[in-house]
Amino acid sequence: MSASLRSPAPGSARQSATGRGRYGSRLKRRRVAAGLAAVCALALGVAACSLKDAKAVASASASSSASAAVARAEKGIADANASATASREAALTPDLKAKRDTALAEPAPVKPLHMDEETAEGAAASVYYFLDLYRYAYMTGNTTELEAMSENGCKFCRSTIDNATNLHNAGGWNDKWEQEVTNVRYYEKLEGYDYNRVEASVSHQMITSHPGGGVDTETSSPTKNELLDFAVRHTNGRWMIGGVRVEQQ
Questions:
Q1: Is 197:188 a contact under the CB 8 Å cutoff?
Q2: Residues 6 or more apart whose Cβ sits within 8 Å of residue 164
């Protein structure tokens, strides 16, 4: 009888204690895992920030190095130009310096009256002005107005602009020469053509060129009534030069 009256509680209690032990272990493991995950996330965050900061520092350093390199290159170019200019100056005799100063001081040509009018007179005046600008460019190196009235497709214009610019960049110039423009004739635009035609005879004295850089002075022979054929077009309120051809005589 006494055996039948024993309570089964101790056995149940042992089972519950064991279950609680397993649950506690799992909970502890989860907490540890969560803690490790937090530590890892924090570590990765710090590493990411460190990497970002390193990239920013590297970028700033590269930018600073590039800027310094550009500054050194610009200074080198400036020093080289200054040295070249000083060498060219030293190579000039007083007589050549005086001639150069005279050429550089040449005043810009004055635009003829009614030059921009869409008339035969306006077209002819534009040709006179272009020829004055041609001489002015070689004397002074100033090609601004010449470029302004030259169309992109004008090879003669482009060649003149480039040659005058290169001449002066090398420290050279042309002395002023006398020229005479005569027998200017204007032709109406033919059907199907975009340009009017202007023909002119040009005579000039000997042209003296000083190439610079210690190169000897060059001269070209005088010409008499050299025939030039201009293709001109009135656009945007002015006459533009589309082409120039030297006619064979």
A1: no
A2: 137, 138, 141, 143
**Residue percentage of the chain with pLDDT more than 70:** 71
The Cα 78–Cα 34 span in angstroms is 65
Place of tokens 């077009």: 233
Residue type, 240: M
Q: What is the pTM of this model?
A: 0.66
Q: pLDDT tens digits, residue range 223-240?
A: 999 999 999 999 999 999
| CA-to-CA dists, residue 16 to 5, 20, 25, 244, angstroms | 22, 6, 14, 111
Q: What's the rounded mean pLDDT across residues 73-100?
A: 70
Classify residue 137 as exposed, middle or buried by CB count within 10 Å of its CB (0-12, 13-18, 19+): buried
Contact 16, 22 (CB under 8 A): no
Residue 141 contacts residue 167 (beta carbons within 8 Å): yes
Average pLDDT score over residue span 146-154: 97
